[in-house]
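Throughout our pipeline, every protein is held as a single compact record rather than as scattered files. Such a record has a labelled line for the sequence and another for the backbone structure tokens. This encoding replaces a full spatial description with a residue-level series of whole-number codes. For reference, a complete record is included directly beneath this paragraph.
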Amino acid sequence: MNFLHDTHIDFMKYRKVFVWVSALLLAVGIFAVFVHGDLNLGIDFAGGTQLTVKFRDEPELDRLRELVTAAGVEDVLIQRFGEPGDHEVIIKTASVSGSEEGSRGLIVGALDEAYSGPELAGAFDLNRNGREALTDLLVQLDAESLAADSDAARARYGELAAAVIDARQAEGMFIETAELDAIAGLSESARRAIKDNTELGSFAVLGSENVGPQIGSELRQKGVAAVVLSLLGMLLYIWLRFELRFGVGALVAVTHDVLITLGLFTLAGFEFNLTTIAGFLTLVGYSVNDSVVVFDRVRENLRKSRSKPLKHVMNLSLNQTLSRTVLTSGTTLLVVGSLLVAGGDVLRGFAFIITIGVVIGTYSSIYVASPFALLWEELFGREARTRRREARAT
């Protein structure tokens, strides 16, 4: 499909204007990240403890914050998670020196005290205990009278416990014991034993992470190094595969894309984590690929029209690749845009990076990579060397 097959747009005519536009966007991005310091570092890089907690009823964030702070946990950040009605929150705290589990125990203890009624005192909480604990309880209760064969009993009750825990994880937590009736493969005797000997707490810990400050620092350094090394690798490849002037243009463009996207990402308030690094590495590859397509056409046209100035050849090449650029970017945006809208909170930051990156990368392949390759040629290329020789001769 080639619906832009005969365009004659003078892209290079207004290149200086768009370079200033890019400079302004870069200034905003640099201010947001390095001056204002709004980068929301995730648990992977900042270190600390992160709990994802689901409640039976909608929790009050101010009350949760007071409870956790009163338990001796400092620098707590609490935010809602998931869709409205899920009653889920994320609780993030700073690292606790000398503790492997971080502040998890203090947080869960505070929630227990506030949300667990007297009926849960000493009872088995089906919303909080895992497969092994439930297996131990079923073995102890021996609802199917398998005690004569301890190995068979352990295996059988382990299967039943796994079925119950899988059903709980599918919904996050059990709201009422009637939900046990829908679990396939759970015998009536085992179901009755679980109902009679367990209670359903008002909250469940869906996920728990703890990263030490040293590990967080190492991950942060390695993440930055991965992005920087990928930029240098791209420059080296294009230098060897094409010419240095094109490598410089591509490097400036991809650095431009990363910094602007990072600034917008920061202003949007998304969490910067390992998935984010994967998004930026994907962005680097996409941006360079877009620039390489244009420069490859420039190289072909230079062979055909050696006498024509580079500015004319670049305009011709950009018009020839415009259809491909629009189609590729458009179809990519359909996919990542859908992921951004319907991908959920976990993937939303990643999808945001790719969505913004595709738009900025398409723009930069035209108005950043090509103008800077042209600028490099004007300053250090053949014509510049000729002018310097003539100036010395006179």
